[in-house]
Design goal:
With 386 residues, this protein is mostly helical. Helix content is 52%, strand content 6%. The protein has three domains: 59 residues, Orthogonal Bundle (434 Repressor (Amino-terminal Domain)); 170 residues, no CATH class; 49 residues, no CATH class. The strands form two sheets. Strands 1-5-4-6 form a four-stranded mixed sheet. The protein has a two-stranded antiparallel ribbon with strand order 2-3. The N and C termini lie far apart (55 Å).
Amino acid sequence: MTSAHINTNVLRWAMERAGVGNAELGTVFKKTPEAIAAWLDGTAVPTFKQAQRLAKRVRVPFGYLFLEVPPLEELPLTDFRRPYGGVRREPSVDLRDVISDVLRKQDWYRDFRLEREEEALPFVGRFTIESSVADVAADIKESLVFEAEVRWRPQASQFLRAFVRQVEALGVLVMRNGIVRQATNRALDVDEFRGFSIADPMAPVIFINNADSNAAQVFTLAHELAHVWIGRGGISDADLTLFREGADDVEAFCNEVAGELLLPWVRLDARWRDRTAPAADWMADVARDFHVSTVMVARQLWLHEAIDREQFFQFYEAEKANWVTKGTKSSGGNFYLSAPIRNSRLLTEAILESVSAAETSIREASRLLGVKPANLSKLEESMGVG
C-alpha cells in the first residue's frame, strides 16, 4: 500500500487545532494511542488512504499534511475576547467554520442588496466608542421601537423572538445556532464565544450562540447591536464581568450599552430604592420582568455603585451554572421552523425570492441554507412566503 509521508509537525498542529488526541484518533483507526504516537514521531507512516481520513478527522485540507510548516491562519474578524491568564485563546475549528459559513452567507446577501441598488444602512457606525453610552442605547431603542414592540412580552422566549424580529426589520441578519451548520455532533462552546458581529453598512450580521439560555442570548444580541452601532464588529465574550479598563475598551463599552438598553438605570434605581424584599428575591423579580438574568441586574447595580464587587460576584457564581442550556448538541424540533432561525429569516426570504426570480440556482440556495434542493419548496411553504 502507498505510504503518505506527511509532515508530523503539521499533523501535531492540526490535532491540537481540532482538539483531537491520540486516544480519539486511535479509536477512529482502531489503533492504540502508541500507534498514533508513532505517526507523530515519524517512526511509522500512515497509508495514503489513512492520511486522507486523518485530514478529514482533524478538519484540514488533505494537502495541508504535506506542507513544510503549519499555515498561518488569520481570523477574518476582529477578536475582542479577553485573554485568560494573559494568554490569547486560539479559535477552535468549530468557531472558524461557523465564521466561514456566516461570511459566505453575508457575502451573498451583500451582493443581493447591491444588485437591487439598495442603500447602505445609516445606523451602522453612527456612533463611536467615545460617544455617550446613554445616547447609543437611546438611538438603538428608538430605531427598534423597543418599548412599544419588544419590551412587554410575558415570557423570555417571546421577548427574544420579538427582539430578533425588530432587529431584522432594520436590515440586520440575525443568525442563531448552537452547532456548526447542521452538524449535531459539533456543539458550539459558550465558554469560547457567545456571539459575533459584522458591521457592514450594506449587510450587517449578528450571530448568536444559542447554546446559551434565553436571557444570555438577549444580552448577546444587545451587545452585538452595540458593536454594529459603533461600526466595530468582531468576536465577543459578552462577558458580564467585564468593566472598562481603558478608553478603547470596546467589549466593556458594548456591555454598558447593552445594559442600558435592556435595563435602564433610571428604572432600576427607582425600584432599588423602593425595594422591600430581600436583595436576591428582588433581583429575581426584576430579572423576570425585564427578561434578563439576575447577573445582568447585579451588574447594573455594581456599575452604578449600588452594590459592591463582592456582592456582585456572589450573584454571578449563583447564576452562572444556569446560563448554559442543557442538551443543546442536537437542534431538534421542526427542521423547517429552525432553518430560518439558524440562517436568519431575512436572509432565507431573500434567497427564496432570488430563486423564484431565477437569479440564484436551486443548488446555490441549497448550499447557502443547508436545505436539500427538493425541500426548498417545503421551507418556503412553512414560512408562508412565495
